[in-house]
Amino acid sequence: MKPMGALPPEFADQRGMLTIAGRPAEDWAADAGDTPFFVYDVAIVAARVARFRSAFPGIDLHYAIKANPLPALLAAIAPLVDGLDIASAGELHRAIAVKPAAAISFAGPGKRDDELTVAIGSGVTLNVESEGEAGRAIGIGERLAIRPRLAVRVNPDIELRGSGMRMGGRPSPFGVDAVRAAALVRTIVASGANWRGFHIYAGSQALDAQAIAETQAATIALAARLAEEAAVSPPLVNLGGGFGVPYFAGDKSLAVEDVGDALRSALDARPAVLRDTRFAIELGRWLVADAGVYLTRIVDRKESGGELFLVVDGGLNHQLAASGNFGTVVRRNYPLALARAVGEEPTETVSVVGPLCTPLDRLGDRIALPAGRVGDLVAIFLAGAYGASASPADFLGHPPAAELLANGY
Amino acid sequence: MKPMGALPPEFADQRGMLTIAGRPAEDWAADAGDTPFFVYDVAIVAARVARFRSAFPGIDLHYAIKANPLPALLAAIAPLVDGLDIASAGELHRAIAVKPAAAISFAGPGKRDDELTVAIGSGVTLNVESEGEAGRAIGIGERLAIRPRLAVRVNPDIELRGSGMRMGGRPSPFGVDAVRAAALVRTIVASGANWRGFHIYAGSQALDAQAIAETQAATIALAARLAEEAAVSPPLVNLGGGFGVPYFAGDKSLAVEDVGDALRSALDARPAVLRDTRFAIELGRWLVADAGVYLTRIVDRKESGGELFLVVDGGLNHQLAASGNFGTVVRRNYPLALARAVGEEPTETVSVVGPLCTPLDRLGDRIALPAGRVGDLVAIFLAGAYGASASPADFLGHPPAAELLANGY
């Protein structure tokens, strides 16, 4: 038997039939019309936002829509946050439908001229990733006779310890190396563009509050140093994100309040050049992962070589990350449950596999569950981030999964 | 500097501007209208088919459409092969448009009743994966008053040595364990269904001819043993596939002629119970991988921490496997080239990264290339299999890649 991660707090104490937003999983299945499908509970997102607000008073909250760009979910989240962070022209079209352009910023190492043109034309802030991109953006602004809103993305000379994905402290396609950032700021200011400040992202998926706090303090110090070097105060410093989610057995959820306390101390002591600067934290996964449940039905129950398999009708075509095939070296089990017996004593060890004709399509590897029957729903948790939109939906020609909203408006 | 795999034979001797099917890469870009895009050269697929026919006279060739289900490509391949192997109802709809139902077989561990119904109704052969699935298929056949075409997929008690993906010799969601297969055949025959034979798939992506030959010999012996045990000769034995493609530095292409020679010997000596049996080999990747090139344009050229990056407009959203994030433990470089200087001496070490705002989006890691400029095309080879349809196209909201056919008809 192998361990699996803990259910998110909103589901951890349930017993019997799983409910999502107070409704039984089978009712959601009836709404969806077919399996597999996702349900996203906006109330859980709102609870995470409230927790952030309480821990980080005065700090702007940005939602990185790459984590889950479903339009209905985005419409529900937009009023709860101060900004939306986007990474393509496609995401721009979704963001601008629900948020003013001035509250949208666009990062990404490979922005094409057509993307820069759309972004500048619509008044979105560009986090420029290189001197070359800055030059193209300034040129496009001149041609459009629009003063572009440009922030400088900095590749920091620090990294986020213990992050699942390090993005700083090393050669990187993201941002301009810190040693060249001040010069780029001066170029931007001299061009007459509207300089919006810094975007500094050191890593993601970290569960250690102390590590995030240290990174934030170092980021503030770096922003101050660069601002002094450029002799101009940044209107905004985007401190990045990095708040992780406990997917796996042994993971402990992040003590965001500790991060908030440390950030308050760091900001209280910040250098004068940042006195009037606003600060933002950019979160994707931490806001939406817990809110999503992926539900799939057992199609077959079979034995092979003394092991038991539950074959379900959903798999890595909708939930690539849960299969362990997206950015992870060692496959580990996401939390999952038999929906009609959540929280009940396990009675057997089973592997839960998807319908795809590849051994990669395994959602639960030798986990302990109550006995599942053909027709039962299986729930995979932490499916709200990097699920439907980050999976190879066309692979093997199965239909897309429906995506439903609970507590939406 | 890190190594990369060798270009496929059709491209390995080119110098200067890359040509695909005799046309310069930039002409294909003009056809596509935008980058990134795929080109699939049907002539290369046809050359692989011809090589197979020469090496395996009298053996049926099946195309596993999961490798590349593009309808136009499928229409071009269908007349060249004896059968199409599918893995979902979605693939069934594509296959039946270009091939008679009797030449189509459907494998997959999680076939739902609605998929079984469509398959039986259209006359496709089902490779049944369990006793439970066989029972459901027989029941659906009775309700439809159609005699279902059923083959038994066997989980062999052998594995394919050196295969990239082992699918035999262990507990598995695929097929019925060999020890129970004969009993299932008897059940199927007794039900009045049209028993079509065995499907036995021991692994995929193997480059060792000797290992494949041993597996095929063992598969034939297993099929004979099961047929004798069930006291009925199988009309067809699908020997599986497993023919690999040399993606990485040091990989040697598979000597299929050696496999063919060994198979001929094994079949010449086959037991009497298989005397009138047809044999098929099911290939996906080996037929189409070499035929595909993914072309993407350089958007930025930047330096960070002493390393050089070429940022291109295509990435893991279209070519997940090339980024090393799909079923591989250690990331290695696919073959790639600067399209206007293919085969020319490298002058610099660069990393080629995609436009996605994630460090996972790396197509070439510290490879040696001639100097690339913004606007140049970069070609990624071996993109014909498990590319566009096996990648998370929606991830980060970029447009889908165009897919063009060369030498199609």
In short:
Chain A has 409 residues and is an alpha/beta fold.
List keywords for this structure.
homodimer; 409 residues; alpha/beta; Lyase, Ornithine Decarboxylase, Chain A, domain 1; TIM Barrel; 2 domains
What would you say this structure looks like, in words?
- Chain A has 2 domains: about 150 residues, Lyase, Ornithine Decarboxylase, Chain A, domain 1 (Beta Barrel); about 220 residues, Alanine racemase (TIM Barrel, Alpha-Beta Barrel), CATH 3.20.20.
- With about 400 residues, chain A is α/β, with parallel strands linked by helices.
- Chain A starts with 8 loop residues before the first helix and ends with a strand.
- The first copy, chain A, has 11 helices and 21 strands.
- In chain A, strand 18 and strand 19 form a beta hairpin.
- In chain A, the strands form 4 sheets. In chain A, strands 3, 15, 16, 17, 18, 19, 20 and 21 form an 8-stranded mixed beta sheet that branches. An 8-stranded parallel beta barrel of chain A has the order 4-5-6-7-8-11-13-14, surrounded by 6 helices.
- At the A-B interface, helix 5, helix 7, strand 9, strand 15 and strand 16 of A face helix 5, helix 7, strand 9, strand 15 and strand 16 of B.
What is the strand content of chain A? 15-25%
End-to-end separation of chain A in angstroms reads: 42 Å
What structural class is derived from the secondary structure elements of chain A? Answer: alpha/beta
**CATH fold call of the largest domain in chain A:** TIM Barrel
Helix content of chain A: 25-40%
The main sheet of chain A comes to:
8 strands, mixed
At CATH level 2, the architecture of the largest domain in chain A is Alpha-Beta Barrel
Domain tally of chain A: 2
What's the number of helices of chain A? Answer: 11
How does the overall form of chain A come out from the CA principal axes? elongated
Assembly status: homodimer
Low-confidence stretches of chain A: none
* CATH evolutionary superfamily of the largest domain in chain A: Alanine racemase
CATH class of the largest domain in chain A: Alpha Beta
* Rg of chain A (CA only): 22 Å
Number of strands of chain A: 21
Protein chain pair with the most extensive contact, residues per chain = A-B, 71 and 71 residues
Q: Calculate the mean pLDDT score of chain A and round it.
A: 96
